[in-house]
Design goal:
- With 295 residues, this protein is of the alpha/beta class.
- The chain folds into 3 domains: 3-77, Winged helix-like DNA-binding domain superfamily/Winged helix DNA-binding domain (Arc Repressor Mutant, subunit A), CATH 1.10.10; 88-162 and 266-291, 3-Layer(aba) Sandwich (D-Maltodextrin-Binding Protein, domain 2), CATH 3.40.190.10; 165-264, 3-Layer(aba) Sandwich (D-Maltodextrin-Binding Protein, domain 2), CATH 3.40.190.
- The chain is built from 9 helices and 12 strands.
- Strands 3, 4, 5, 6, 7, 10, 11 and 12 form an 8-stranded mixed sheet that branches.
- α1 crosses α2 (18-25) and α1 (3-15) packs across α4 (61-88).
- Belongs to the LysR transcriptional regulatory family.
- One of its GO terms (cellular component) is cytosol.
């Protein structure tokens, strides 16, 4: 079987027309026909039925089944090529959510540099939910992820290293600023400045809102933590962030939550189970495990 045959087949499922698939790949139509025939012979089944009288193409049940597996096979092939490319270039792609980057990574960067590992690292920065998807698809090698529950995926090896509470952030001149702690229900109707959907904070705040039978009022969302904090400082709304976001700003006050059984911001190291670690990646994992716990 050729990988290219599966690529042709996958496109045929979408286009349902041999000529269009040939044009898409800039090959002849007989090339596409031969590829489909090879697949059918190898699998000893008919994958497609061509109705020449109506110019239609029908996918058999066996063809539908192959399509599901073809998508997985082609995705794994792309992952394999990406990982081998980074391995050959001695490159390590590290996923970092902004809050984790600011709080943890800056504290270990000097050690990475002293071990001559820092220059090998390319960081990809986004929310933990988006980075987890990128990790599962092989776009990054290792990630430091935030979650509101312990991570558990068959295709990922995860190692939890820290936990922190979530807090409510308000401007220094906000009416709530003179309080040290608050119940989430007391925030009903207040405007929120929140991180975007790709961040784990969305799941955590939605849990609290559901438990308190509240409908949130998010007036603005951003992937930029500093922008969120600046808008809170300008008293445009309040925010819900991990406590480690507090960078000692004097124009913002962080309030503890008094709710029982509230979600925590759990931080973990993660990498794919199928990923073959290079010596440099192993050294980075050792350093991360040794130095990140309980910072």
């Amino acid at each position: 079987m050729y990988i290219r045959d599966l690529e042709y087949y996958q496109q045929l499922i979408l286009q349902k027309n041999f000529s269009k698939v040939a044009a898409f790949f800039n090959v002849s139509q007989p090339t596409i026909s031969a590829a489909i025939k090879r697949l059918e012979e190898e699998l000893s089944t008919q994958l497609v039925i061509r109705d020449h009288s109506h110019n239609d193409l029908y996918i058999t049940l066996a063809g539908e089944q192959l399509n599901k597996h073809a998508n997985q096979i082609l995705n794994e092939w792309l992952v394999t090529k990406d990982e081998i490319s980074r391995l050959n270039n001695d490159q390590i792609t590290l996923g970092l959510p902004p809050i984790i980057r600011n709080y943890y990574f800056t504290k270990i960067a000097s050690q990475l540099s002293s071990l001559d590992l820092l220059h090998n690292i390319q960081t990809i920065e986004s929310g933990s939910n988006d980075l987890r998807k990128a990790l599962l698809h092989g776009k990054i090698d290792i990630a430091l992820l935030g979650s509101d529950e312990p991570l558990s995926y068959k295709s990922l090896i995860t190692q939890e290293f820290d936990r922190h509470p979530f807090q409510i952030f308000v401007a220094k001149n906000h009416p709530l600023a003179n309080r040290q702690a608050i119940h989430f229900a007391d925030l009903k109707g207040l405007p929120f400045i929140l991180l975007s959907e790709g961040f784990v904070h969305t799941q955590a705040i939605n849990k609290l809102a559901n438990r308190n039978h509240m409908r949130l009022n998010p007036i603005f969302r951003s992937t930029d933590v500093n922008l969120v904090l600046n808008m809170v400082a300008a008293n445009l709304g309040i925010s819900f962030l991990a406590s480690i976001t507090n960078d000692q700003r004097n124009d913002i006050v962080a309030l503890d939550l008094l709710d029982d059984d509230q979600p925590e911001f759990i931080t973990s190291i993660a990498y794919r189970t199928a990923h073959v670690l290079t010596p440099a990646q192993k050294n980075i994992l050792i350093l991360l495990n040794k130095n990140l716990r309980g910072i």
